[in-house]
């Protein structure tokens, strides 16, 4: 991780989900609408252009033939390529993708499941003991059993193939999609994304969302390390965590406790095709104090779904999430972008800000991060500076820390400044000449720049003329 900027870091996340493009339309109109909306909210609403894209599942509609699924992934890959160019200058590392239930290959699950040969009573006992191999079909009122486990595990194969092709060596999807997650640490911003698969054990007969405990455990150490550096930890998955009494297509909210104890601050998801207004989850049994152990949960609506995917009265939606991150906390502003086209089957979305019952039309939240001591921040700046060799970033981080704490770290600042070859930067950052070191750095920078105006200004500086140091006198003579 190369990031120095623990203080005053502002960035924006584009959160889309449940793309659900129908076969009757193409992605061009969607892309154009997103471009128009980007121009609108950056120009008129003062929102920063997104630095990250999160796609929280259901990239395709799905199909029962592999070729049709591959065709859908080829289309969505071309679309994602274009929005990475639009928002991220083609930096695909900053695009976070997880699968949804429509990304599961149901042809594969159909071939790997067969009617159970066990008695009905035995099946009932096993099924209600939370067996992962038994399924119940309401249509046929029959128990089914996964008989070919190896084939069943291949139900994510086409999604993984798409994922690995899209990232082209930047990263690859975990070898075991059911029980492994992945982590992305950015090299500029103090944020960590964790990609989780909430389709563990999901197939054509089981629509219940589930994140395997092993998956959370597989990234626990990395999440804890990021937390201890003062970073913001964001988990991404697909399913929502509650439902109506007769629904089963949501995940057990107990997994949220597992995320809490693994230092996750924000959860981004979709699946329900409507934005959930940033509900905050906490477990009082785990709370150390009122400012810790809380999880901010944000869902996105369907990006391009039609009347088939939209509940009555709902519209297409996506989120633009603004983050103002400091040492110890982050302010979160959630902007809901909504399609104002009255036709739910329209091919041209009319994106605009969703009106909310407050003056800003934004949802305002705050999450608490680990507050680092000044010494911890200085050590991290020094460690990262030695690793990257970027002394200018180190100087900027020191300046930010001084502004926040009102404490001078001048000695460390000058140590980094000496290593910088951008002499205009060096000259401008010696604001006042108080020491021999200041004098030498500023004179040497003016000489390297060969700037007559700067030279004359230094020669006329009475402070410099009063230095008795031989090095300063020699440098001034060279200036003349």
What does this structure look like?
It is a single chain. The protein is of the alpha/beta class and 480 residues long. 36% of the residues lie in helices and 18% in strands. The chain contains 17 helices and 16 strands. Strands 1, 2, 3, 13, 14, 15 and 16 form a seven-stranded mixed sheet that branches. Strands 7-8-9-10-12-11 form a six-stranded mixed sheet. Strand 9 (232-236), helix 9 and strand 10 form a beta-alpha-beta unit. Helix 11 runs antiparallel to helix 12 and helix 14 runs parallel beside helix 17 (470-479). Mean pLDDT is 92; it is low at 1-7.
Report the span from N to C terminus.
46 Å
Radius of gyration, in Å, reads 28 Å
What's the β-strand tally?
16
Helix content range of the residues, please? Answer: 25-40%
Write the layout of secondary structure elements.
Blueprint: E1 9-16, H1 28-44, E2 52-56, H2 66-88, E3 95-98, H3 106-112, E4 113-115, H4 120-127, E5 134-137, E6 142-146, H5 149-152, H6 157-167, E7 182-185, E8 191-195, H7 213-218, H8 220-228, E9 232-236, H9 254-261, E10 266-269, E11 279-282, E12 294-299, E13 317-326, E14 329-339, E15 351-353, E16 363-368, H10 374-388, H11 391-405, H12 410-417, H13 423-428, H14 436-449, H15 452-459, H16 462-465, H17 470-479
Helix pairs in contact: 2-6, 10-11, 11-12, 14-15, 14-17
